[in-house]
Amino acid sequence: MSANRFNGFTDLGIGIGLRAPHYNHILTRKPVVDWFEIISENFMIGGGRALHILDQILEQYKVVQHGVSMYFGSAEKLNREHLRRLKELVQRTKTPWLSDHLCWGSVDGRYTHDLLPMPYTFEAARITSEKVREVQDFLEIPVAVENVSSYAEYHDSEMTEWEFLNEVVERADCGILLDVNNIYVSSQNHSFNPFDYVNSVPAHRVAQIHIAGHSKYRKYILDTHDHPVIDPVWKLYERAIQRAGHTATLLEWDDSIPSFQEVHGEALKANKFLRSTVLAEAV
Amino acid sequence: MKLMQLQRTMARAVMQPLTSSERMQRRAPDGGPMKRYASRFIKPNDRLTSFERLEIYNRQYWFRILAALSEDFPGLHAVLGERRFDAMAKAYLIANPSRSFTLRNLGARLESWLRKNPKWAGANQNLALEIVRLEWADIEAFDGKAEPALRPEDLLSAAGPRLKLTIQPYVRLLSFLYPVDDLLLEVRKEDDDTDFASNAFTEHRKRKRVRAVRKLKPAEIFLAVHRIDNSVYFRRLGLEEFSILTALRQGKTLGAAVESAFSKSKVAPEERPLKVQTWFQTWATLGWFCRPEKKRAAG
Ligand SMILES: [Fe+2]
């Protein structure tokens, strides 16, 4: 069920984000890992160490590209030079699909380097979905959009975040990278039931799932990717795969990164839930 | 509000500098109170006001870009000291918000901006400008493009006075008035040793080292910033070596490059051929020469 046209009909299993502190361990110990997710921007460079490492990883592992700067939701036009460089990388990695965020972050050519929340309006859904289509056409691979964590909401919004996500992916006919940690973080910040969100996602479009940890402050939760996954997020994950099936799952850990074994061990906890989907699909 | 207008309104607030206590300013970009500005487009919730919600993004923006710049220029940080560096970084980033999809390019205009705004370059402007130039070259050499290198034997078979040689795009050729290469290596060593010493102690040692370099009489040095096995190295060059390489990069022929390099040289004429041969051998072994980059078809 999880192999679908939004993830290039693959069934990758459990992966982790490829991060510099683990390069040495991976290349010398060659641990068994289903797949790695890379941040595209880190490899959109002329040459040097990062590309050299990537080529070695590509010889032995499956790699999927994840971006942080496409800004599908920015009102300005897509940056063609950026797309051209991204396509070069896509050809190098042969990524079966590519993901980036359902957010905005640049305006008038200035970059905030942040994942800023969208106003959930029909105008924004139209602009965003047109850009997703443009990227898909240019890169010639399936694109999945990821829901972000947010700390603010706009007066302008005309629908809920999950209705907006539905609107965008239907119009763009694209996949979803469902980040269940982001759903949890936003549900706490904006007081909604995260299961309403998970239950409303068009399950057949889920290409991939993200799990991660976060930091809790007194009045809000920040998506920091520097902790293990908490139980309520595992519960959302369980529900998501009940609906979407045995889906490619990836643990994000970007700050205070522990050892490779610890990160991989945390990711493999997803197996407990994935196994039950296999049983459910079998009966 | 139209999407573009909403994004411009929010970006102006997010990119507005923080107060000295790292909070969002009370005054909005339009001159009015920020409380009113924020509440026009951001909803409050039961825990946070519109102002406080917007402030989360405002602070994240500044923390992120300041940290990125500081990470890329530890040498300038050492030259200016903590307080001056922070003030300079803030002023630079206000004047030069990121125009690239990657934070890697954040410091691309730092040298030219500092040159035009010397009041941010501290007591020794030349030293500050030089260290910035070296640190930026380091970034470019680290992940710059490498073309397939010409091997020493390829060079031998092709050599002739009219030969034009292309130098690898990642190799940076720079001249300096101070030994900033030594200074930067020292600063990095101190940073690596921070685990074993208190922060204050290493800061103190760094300042001492900077003062020592400042006191040095300016003595011109020539550097190639390049990489071997994906690590960046600073290689000191003699004046003639530097002149040859710079001329080759400018597109001069091998013959013209060598001739101009020795026009005012003190190297005895009879010693020159052997020197030139040795230099080219070394540079080719380091992989600095490559085939000319294919030009894209015009039109
Ligand atoms: Fe994510």
What is the mean pLDDT of chain B? Answer: 91
Oligomer: heterodimer
**How many beta strands in the DSSP annotation of chain B?**
6
What structural class do you assign from the helix and strand content of chain B?
A: mainly alpha
Strand content of chain B: 5-15%
State the CATH superfamily name of chain A.
Divalent-metal-dependent TIM barrel enzymes
Categorize the overall geometry of chain A. globular
Could you estimate the helical fraction of the residues of chain A in percent? 40-55%
The largest sheet of chain A has its strands arranged as 1-2-3-4-7-9-10-13
Largest interface: A-B, 44 and 48 residues
| Morphology of chain B | elongated
Biggest sheet of chain B: strands, sense, closure?
A: 3 strands, antiparallel
Write a structural description.
By secondary structure, chain A is α/β, with parallel strands linked by helices. Chain A has a single domain, classed as Alpha-Beta Barrel (TIM Barrel). Chain A contains 10 helices and 13 strands. In chain A, strands 1-2-3-4-7-9-10-13 form an 8-stranded parallel barrel, surrounded by 5 helices. A two-stranded antiparallel sheet of chain A has the order 5-6. In chain A, strands 11-12 form a two-stranded antiparallel sheet. In chain A, about 50% of the residues are buried. The model of chain A has no long low-confidence stretch (mean pLDDT about 95). Chain B is mainly alpha-helical. Chain B is about 55% helix and about 10% strand. In chain B, the strands form 2 sheets. In chain B, strands 3-4-5 form a 3-stranded antiparallel beta sheet. A two-stranded antiparallel ribbon of chain B has the order 2-6. In chain B, helix 3 packs across helix 5, helix 4 runs antiparallel to helix 7 and helix 11 runs antiparallel to helix 12. The radius of gyration of chain B is 25 Å and the shape is elongated. At the A-B interface, helix 2, strand 5, strand 6, helix 4 and strand 8 of A face helix 1, strand 1 and helix 3 of B. Strand 8 of chain A pairs antiparallel with strand 1 of chain B. Fe (ii) ion binds next to loops of chain A.
